[in-house]
Design a protein that fits this description.
Layout lengths: L17 E2 L5 E2 L2 H10 L17 H37 L7 H112 L2 H15 L5 H17 L15 H27 L9 H12 L7 E5 L2 E4 H4 L10 H21 L7 E2 L3 H6 L33 E8 L3 E8 L4 E5 L7 H18 L11 E3 L14 H13 L11 H14 L5
Parallel strand pairs: 5-6, 8-9
Antiparallel strand pairs: 1-2, 3-4, 6-7, 7-8
Helix pairs in contact: 3-6, 4-5, 7-13, 9-12, 12-13
Length: 541
């Protein structure tokens, strides 16, 4: 236990002293001032001094200094001893040159300098080799760039040559297409003129028949029969011959043909002539359709086949747009459905119908007397019969498609020639429906053979509601309209996945009033035809 030093004459302050850790004194200001004045407290660390006048802090420093001094004195003694030993040994040896240590230092300096020179020389040689390698590489790089530029120029020239060749091929293909289109249009115009001449000739002959004698009537009837032989089969010719002979027989009342004049009223004769004329025109159109149909099934050339293969088998993301017209587009994944054995989706069918509408517009520009046709999307029937609503599936609803007629040419469906509809049945089968406005006929074309009566009734009801809504009057002569179910001679598919292709071909042929002469054997060719039309953005002919 620490004891306080005797207060001596500072006893009056003894009760005020307190000692802390390391001898620190905590006291009153009066006590501290008295001790400081007497030199009992260290002014630096504020601790009491011992009898030697050292505080604890300075006492430790002095101890450390003593140790250092002892070490220093020991080192000095060791050095002195070593010097004495060296002097003794030198006294026994003969005298030597005092320049030895200087030479040794000089030699060491020389050695260090030589080593530094060697290092410098080595670095210099390595730097030279490095520079040589860099120069060599730069030379090779320049040579490579020069060769690359030469090859690039060569490739550019080859690309230009190929581009020119490709442009020439495209130009040739375009000219060939324009030639085919011109020939087709010329054929249409020629047939039109032929029918006009025939009609005028028949009208003129019918007027003469009223005034001619019975023998002249027989000759005219035989002339019609002779003309029909050029367009009809043998069975039809026989039927017309029998009809003509029966007609002649009604006017053959005497053996003396020269003295008998026609007694039947001219109006009745004109009616009979009109019937023969209509049969003749119908047979002519039928033969014309059969002649045009093979033109729609022409084979593709090599360039066209290359375009089709690239479109169908090309590599790329499925959502890549390969064709676009307005808001309609075709993705690469949809193009791949044109491969044989795959069911077509609505994207392909709608886009092909859009191309047929463009073709119809071009034909009407060439022939102003031709009326426009319109192609609805499959969504029309879906909305008309609420096939997208499970609560009222199949229920007819005119208001769902009331505004659709505003998008048709002229905004009036009753001024159109035809209206064609692709219909998707249960998301499993495609069929085609057609409204022939001039003929007042609605017909279903199904490659699976179903009658489609439900859609016939819905479309006929739509026409009636449309006339009442737009014209504000009921459809005139509604009883004269003919609803034709699917016919036995409609082309049939032999599998469960080509219905979409048949639906496209039905619309393609019906647009030109061509006979449906294609069958299952032509479907792969029809798939290529659809693909080429989409890639060229034009329904090919």
């Amino acid at each position: 236990m620490r004891r306080d030093p005797k207060p001596n004459h500072f006893s009056q302050f003894a009760s005020n002293r307190k000692f802390g850790r390391n001898g620190t004194v905590y006291h009153s200001p009066e006590y501290s001032a008295a001790f400081l004045a007497n030199g009992k407290i260290c002014k630096t660390c504020k601790t009491l001094k011992d009898k030697k006048g050292l505080c604890r802090h300075h006492k430790g420093i002095e101890t450390a200094n003593d140790r250092h001094n002892d070490d220093h004195r020991g080192a000095v003694a060791a050095i002195a001893e070593a010097a004495a030993t060296t002097a003794a040994s030198s006294a026994t040896k003969p005298e030597t040159n005092n320049d030895g240590p200087k030479n040794e230092v000089k030699n060491r300096k020389m050695a260090r300098k030589s080593a530094a020179d060697e290092v410098h020389n080595e670095k210099t040689s390595m730097s030279q080799e490095h520079n040589e390698v860099i120069v060599d590489l730069k030379q090779k790089l320049r040579t490579t760039k020069r060769e690359a530029n030469i090859r690039k120029g060569k490739h550019r020239r080859e690309k230009l040559e190929l581009s020119e060749r490709y442009k020439e091929k495209l130009l040739i293909a375009k000219l060939e297409q324009e030639l085919r289109t011109t020939e087709w249009e010329a054929g249409i115009q020629e047939d039109k003129h032929r029918r006009e001449i025939s009609e005028l000739s028949k009208r003129y002959n019918s007027k003469l028949l009223v005034k001619d004698e019975d023998s002249e009537w027989k000759r005219k009837i035989q002339l019609y029969v002779k003309n029909e032989k050029e367009y009809t089969s043998e069975e039809t010719v026989q039927e017309n011959t029998v009809a003509a002979e029966a007609l002649v027989h009604t006017y053959d009342d005497s053996d003396d043909d020269d003295d008998i004049v026609l007694e039947k009223e001219p109006r009745d004769i004109e009616a009979e002539i009109k019937i023969v004329q209509e049969n003749f025109n119908a047979l002519s159109i039928s033969n014309e359709a059969e002649t045009r149909a093979p033109l729609l099934m022409r084979t593709l050339n090599e360039d066209e086949r290359e375009i089709v293969e690239t479109a169908i088998d090309g590599v790329g993301p499925g959502d890549e747009i390969v064709a676009q017209a307005g808001t309609d587009s075709v993705q690469r994944a949809s193009m791949q459905t044109l491969k044989p054995g795959i069911w077509l989706n609505d994207e392909i069918i709608h886009y092909f119908y859009l191309l047929l509408a463009k073709r119809d517009e071009d034909l009407c520009k060439f022939d102003p007397s031709r009326k426009r046709s319109h192609f609805f999307k499959s969504f029309f029937i879906t909305n008309l019969l609420n096939e997208g609503n499970a609560s009222c599936y199949g229920k007819y609803e005119y208001r769902n498609v009331k505004r659709w007629s505003k998008k048709v040419p002229g905004k009036d469906i009753f001024n159109l020639d035809k209206i064609l509809f692709p219909i998707n049945i249960g998301k499993m089968h495609w069929i085609c429906a057609a409204i022939f406005m001039k003929k007042k006929r609605i017909e279903i074309f199904d490659s699976m053979g179903s009658n489609g009566n439900k859609y016939l009734r819905a479309l006929f009801r739509y026409i009636q509601d449309e006339h009442l809504d737009k014209k504000k009057t009921p459809l005139p002569n509604a009883d004269s309209w003919e609803l034709v179910s699917n016919q036995l001679d409609t082309p049939r598919q032999a599998n469960g996945y080509d219905c979409g292709v048949f639906t496209c071909m039905f619309a393609d042929f019906l647009l030109h009033d061509a006979a449906l002469v294609f069958n299952q054997d032509h479907i792969d060719q029809c798939r290529e035809r659809i693909a080429l039309s989409i890639m060229k953005d034009k329904a090919i002919m």
